[in-house]
Fold MFS transporter.
Amino acid sequence: MQPKSTVNRQVKTEIAGIAGLAFCGILVETSMNVTFPTLMGLFHTTLNNVQWITTAYLLAVTLTIVLADYLQRSFHYRIILTVSVLASFFGGVICAAALNLPMILLGRVIQGAGTGMALPLLFTIIMTQVPRQ
């Protein structure tokens, strides 16, 4: 007979949702390189300029991960989760509606901030909400 799980359904759902958000953020980042030739033609710009889309995203992710400890001490994790989801969503909307390269950069920075909040939050929830045994 298997022991009953001590992790409630809400925590499992939160972990799955945050893991999905983090996965989508990393997937979008890695797949962005494929779009470079199309973006270069669409915006009539050089590869150096288009590479800033990925660079800005990764800088935003890194900066937000560095700030994660402060954010987690200052705000409840549900607030951070909500802001992370909203930032990822609205960053994607800005990118989809972008008419020029600076708009895409803005959207990607906002998406990066959302992903950067989700990654450490995932591990924090696992460490604090899931019992070791």
Remarks:
- The first helix runs from residue 9 to 31.
- The radius of gyration is 17 Å.
- The CA atoms of residues 63 and 116 lie 8 Å apart.
